[in-house]
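Sequence, please.
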């Protein structure tokens, strides 16, 4: 899909570099605030997120406001040519509000009212909290909306969590009434007669709870959908004055990743949230140098999430938070090794980010984040290693202005679906610990990342038609509407790959009756009739293209109709039966992979498809495993990032002349790339 026009997500035409700045913690230290400005220039930073947790400073008592300090911060940043990403402070409210209006406090799934404290423990439905946040945001917009330093709105911070209070119960029932119209439709969708769980009055419906209803999958799935919609509703309430007063200032909120496997955040459906943002931004905290995976394996996972968040709006995104050194919440908080900060930062840029921002600018002196990494450490020095590495990133970004706004056209797409992940995780079947839907998608992505093939990670609502290859692993939950779109994609000439545990339930989490959906049988020429779940020590093998590949976890017993058998099982009661199939359907072709196979299979299988479909890297650079070459493009140039995610020196080979973006030197042939080194080039298209 060719997207070569530049897309500027802010009015800046330079790479943003800076981070979360909390001057409200240092108002009694004017010397510190003065040092901040000097250090910002030394660090080559130019943009700062301000006010994220500043509500108690902005409004120390109800109706008593203190904006003068923020006025000065705006001026200080503006004087050095910097830009402000102004946050709305709803992520953590002041104590006076919790005391006077206890309804703003969340109620957990055990129906326990939470105390004041922490952050992100407010009710998204509370009328008082909606009123208070909107009033504060209006004051901010009126005061700073026309300030020349204002670049962007950073709305709240890392939305997440859920509330089970009476306000939320009522809102949930209203949401269900809007969706189902009547109780018969709801009971049908939730399979009410099971365990006598039929509802006869809307008031009987409660949100899922460990001390109440927790086994109705349709209820649990709809609750998660409601939580996303209610969070978006709260966000939309927050931005009313921002859109009204500053319609030309873009709005973002920072998305997240989840778990130490670094998978997309699971609690909210970001595909829905993205529609309401002008810019996607996210907070990336990979555990570099960990002891359970290689550096390259982790880099692949980072690339997957980058490509997902870039693909949500098909435009550059912003890295809103990262650490220049270490975090304070991993089990082991290991520092980035020399060179890793520049390499990991440039990986973000290579995959589509137009910023490198940090949490945090200056380390807090007290509380839980006082040892979280920062640009400025407690020594207040510009001479330590971390500060110098940040300055080097800043100097590098200053030479990449031409990259800003460029995109990453892709011919390959992988479909990721939040609702499918929820439903599959809730399914009481298969392997309870081995489903690993997001991780499975990352494994299919790995082959393309290793071969320098750009990939879009798209959602079920996005257009399929421009991709040569669409990969849909483990799409357990799939509506008839999505099936029809997949059918149309293949009929129109697309090549579709689907796997085991796909097409089993509809959007209500009700199984399809009568075997696999007829349209899927028509597309693939097969009928999957049984899923065998293996114990961790169990192993099977699949023969494909004359080679044997290891199978773990899952194997689908397939009834072949008119598909071509590409691979067969070698063991168990389904020995000799189809394991991998292909089937031509109208102008396209559909492939089915019946079992969870090892990486060597993915390499060979997808290499075969890449050869058949003429899917090639944007530029040809020969290298060994662990080196990643990613490209951003505009109409005139390719911007090439060569990144060594190994602990050894590597040699790469260019068969064409490129120009070093940093030094201006032209070169071709062999090039040495050191451990954790990144090199950047441009090439005329």
């Amino acid at each position: 899909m060719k997207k070569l026009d530049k897309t500027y997500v802010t009015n800046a035409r330079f790479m943003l570099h800076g981070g979360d700045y909390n001057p409200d913690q240092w108002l009694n230290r004017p010397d510190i605030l003065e040092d901040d400005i000097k250090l910002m220039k030394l660090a080559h930073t130019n943009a700062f997120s301000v006010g994220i947790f500043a509500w108690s400073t902005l409004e120390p008592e109800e109706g008593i406001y203190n904006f003068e300090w923020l006025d000065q911060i705006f001026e200080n940043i503006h004087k050095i040519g910097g830009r402000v990403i102004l946050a709305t402070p709803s992520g953590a409210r002041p104590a006076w509000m919790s005391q006077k209006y206890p309804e703003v406090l969340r109620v957990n799934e055990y129906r326990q009212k939470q105390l004041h404290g922490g952050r992100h423990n407010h009710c998204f439905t509370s009328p008082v909290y909606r009123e208070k946040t909107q009033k504060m945001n209006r004051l901010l917009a009126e005061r700073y909306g026309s300030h020349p330093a204002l670049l962007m709105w950073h709305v709240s911070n890392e939305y997440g969590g859920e509330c089970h209070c009476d306000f939320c119960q009522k809102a949930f029932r209203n949401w269900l009434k809007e969706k189902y119209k009547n109780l018969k439709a709801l009971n049908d969708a939730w399979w009410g007669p099971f365990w006598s769980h039929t509802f006869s009055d809307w008031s009987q419906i409660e949100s899922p709870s460990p001390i109440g209803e927790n086994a109705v999958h349709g209820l649990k799935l709809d609750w998660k959908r409601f939580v996303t919609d209610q969070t978006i509703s709260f966000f939309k309430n927050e931005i009313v004055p921002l859109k009204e007063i500053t319609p030309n200032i873009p709005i973002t909120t920072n998305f997240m990743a989840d778990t130490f496997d670094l998978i997309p955040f699971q609690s909210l459906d970001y595909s829905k949230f993205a529609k309401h943002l002008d810019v996607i931004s996210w907070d990336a905290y990979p555990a570099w140098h960990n002891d359970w995976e290689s550096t390259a394996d982790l880099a692949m996972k980072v690339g997957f999430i980058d490509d997902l968040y870039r693909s949500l709006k098909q435009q550059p995104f912003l890295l809103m938070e990262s650490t220049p050194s270490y975090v304070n919440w991993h089990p082991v908080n290991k520092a980035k090794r020399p060179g890793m900060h520049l390499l990991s930062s440039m990986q973000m840029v290579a995959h589509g980010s137009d910023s490198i921002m940090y949490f945090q600018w200056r380390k807090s002196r007290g509380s839980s984040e006082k040892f979280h990494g920062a640009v400025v450490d407690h020594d207040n020095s510009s001479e330590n290693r971390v500060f110098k590495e940040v300055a080097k990133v800043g100097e590098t970004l200053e030479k990449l202005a031409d990259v800003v706004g460029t995109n990453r056209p892709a011919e390959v797409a992988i479909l990721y679906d939040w609702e499918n992940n929820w439903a599959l995780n809730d399914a009481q079947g298969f392997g309870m610990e081995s489903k690993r839907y997001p991780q499975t998608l990352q494994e299919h992505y790995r082959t393309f990342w290793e071969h320098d093939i750009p990939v879009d990670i798209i959602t079920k609502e996005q257009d399929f038609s421009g991709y040569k290859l669409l990969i849909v692993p483990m799409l357990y939950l799939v509506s008839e509407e999505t099936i029809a779109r997949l059918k149309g994609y293949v009929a129109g000439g697309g090549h579709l790959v689907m796997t085991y545990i796909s097409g089993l339930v509809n959007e209500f989490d009700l199984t399809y009756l009568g075997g696999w959906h007829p349209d899927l049988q028509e597309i693939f020429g097969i009928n999957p009739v049984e899923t065998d779940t293996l114990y961790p020590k169990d192993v099977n093998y699949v023969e494909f293209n004359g080679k044997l590949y290891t199978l773990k976890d899952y194997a689908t017993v397939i009834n072949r109709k008119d598909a071509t058998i590409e691979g067969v099982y070698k063991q168990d009661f389904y020995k000799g039966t189809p394991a991998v199939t292909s089937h031509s359907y109208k102008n396209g072709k559909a492939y089915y992979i019946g079992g969870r196979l090892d990486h060597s299979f993915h390499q060979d299988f997808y290499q075969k498809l890449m050869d058949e479909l003429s899917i090639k890297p944007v530029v040809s650079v020969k290298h060994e495993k662990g080196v990643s070459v990613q490209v951003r493009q505009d109409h005139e140039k390719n911007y090439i990032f060569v990144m060594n995610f190994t602990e050894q020196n590597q040699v790469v080979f260019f068969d064409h002349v490129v120009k070093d973006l940093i030094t201006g030197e032209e070169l071709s042939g062999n090039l040495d790339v050191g451990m954790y080194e990144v090199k950047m080039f441009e090439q005329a298209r």
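The radius of gyration is 26 Å.
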